[in-house]
Amino acid sequence: HLFFLAAVSKMSDWPTLLGNKFLKKDGSVVGAEAVEGKTIAVFCSSMGCPPCRVFTPILAKFYEEYKQLDPGFEVIFCSSDKDETSFLEYFKGHHGDYLAYEFESDACKKMQVHVSATGIPCLAIYDKTGKLLTKKGRAIVQENTAKSAFESKLI
Fold first, then answer.
1. What is the DSSP letter of 145?
2. Backbone phi and psi for residue 36, each to the nearest 5 degrees, phi listed first
3. Cα separations (Å) of 125 from 93, 115, 116, 132, 141?
4. Which of 67, 107, 75 is nearest to 91 (CA)?
5. What pTM did the predictor assign?
6. What is the pLDDT of residues 13-50, one digit of tens each?
7. What local confidence, expressed as pLDDT, does residue 2 receive?
8. Which of 42, 115, 136, 138 sees the fewest Cβ atoms within 10 Å?
9. Residues 6 or more apart in contact with residue 109 via CB below 8 angstroms
10. What is the DSSP letter of 31?
């Protein structure tokens, strides 16, 4: 894993690390153009995790409000669910209108390693070049309104 982290730490590798295939809640698939040039929040979570189920609706509301202030912001859900049925139920029924990696995709697995998500829920925020801004996105979302986070340039 250390070699992998060193290899993807270069900003030019960001598009490769991020991936190029994302699900929308309606089941459609979009490509890299959906995230290109955007600030990205990678949300590592699972339906089987009680703190995740508490945080997910908070993130969904925050996303809806923040996206109105900054259309260049996107969340990608990276599931730790045990099966695809749980993943789809959780994503379609409880998340905001943001993107998700396909269940057990290589891109999701690589991003979990890159984020170093030792515990969930984890919200890591990256700038448009792939520079990690913070792994404490969960605290930012829980402690601020979308407007205050935007005005304070916390994201």
1. -
2. -60, 130
3. 23, 9, 13, 6, 11
4. 75
5. 0.90
6. 888 889 999 999 999 999 999 999 999 999 999 999 99
7. 39
8. 136
9. none
10. E
What angle is formed at CA 127 by the lines to CA 82 and CA 60, rounded to 5 degrees? 50
Rounded average pLDDT over 127-148:
93
CA angle 94, 100, 104 (to 5 degrees): 110
pLDDT class of 12 with cuts at 50, 70, 90: low
Give the residue, 115 or 2, on which the prediction is more confident: 115
| Other residues' Cβ atoms within 10 Å of the Cβ of residue 11 | 12
**What CA–CA distance (Å, rounded) separates 36 from 74?**
10
As given in the structure block, the two tokens for residue 95 are 């998340």
Query: Is 81 strand, coil or helix?
Result: coil
Per-residue HEC secondary structure of 24-80 comes to CCCCCEEEHHHCCCCEEEEEEECCCCHHHHHHHHHHHHHHHHHHHHCCCEEEEEEEC
